[in-house]
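Following up on my earlier message about zinc ion. Here are the inputs again, as you asked, copied directly from the submission form:
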Amino acid sequence: MSRFRFAGDFAAIHQPDYRRMARDERVGTRAVRVHFAALGYGNQIGHAEFGPGELAQVLGIGHGRAADKAASKAVDAAKAMGLVGPDSGLRCLTLPTTQFQKGKGSVVCKYHGAAIGQVAA
Ligand SMILES: [Zn+2]
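Thanks, got it. Here's what our run produced:
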């Protein structure tokens, strides 16, 4: 494992661990696990995209309309607590660059039509 050279007050996380914690119902409330999903799946622009129904599955809620509604409620709670960006939803969780940065991977978000270098709304 290589060591990082950090600027400011940044630290690093291991994304696969946060993906696991997002799925583990023992870890915390669904809103907290929404935050972990944003950290675990976030790309270089701080966007974590999910397919239809995928976030409900990540959170261990299950499939279908009721599961999506419960996942949406968890995202709303996470937004209210500042755990994810205000433009977050079932299809993409966002984190501002002041909270999250990543060195490799995707630099676009199809859902929000965002790309690296663009200023988030
Ligand atoms: Zn996005």
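One observation from looking it over: The chain has four helices and four strands. Hope that helps, and feel free to reply on this thread.
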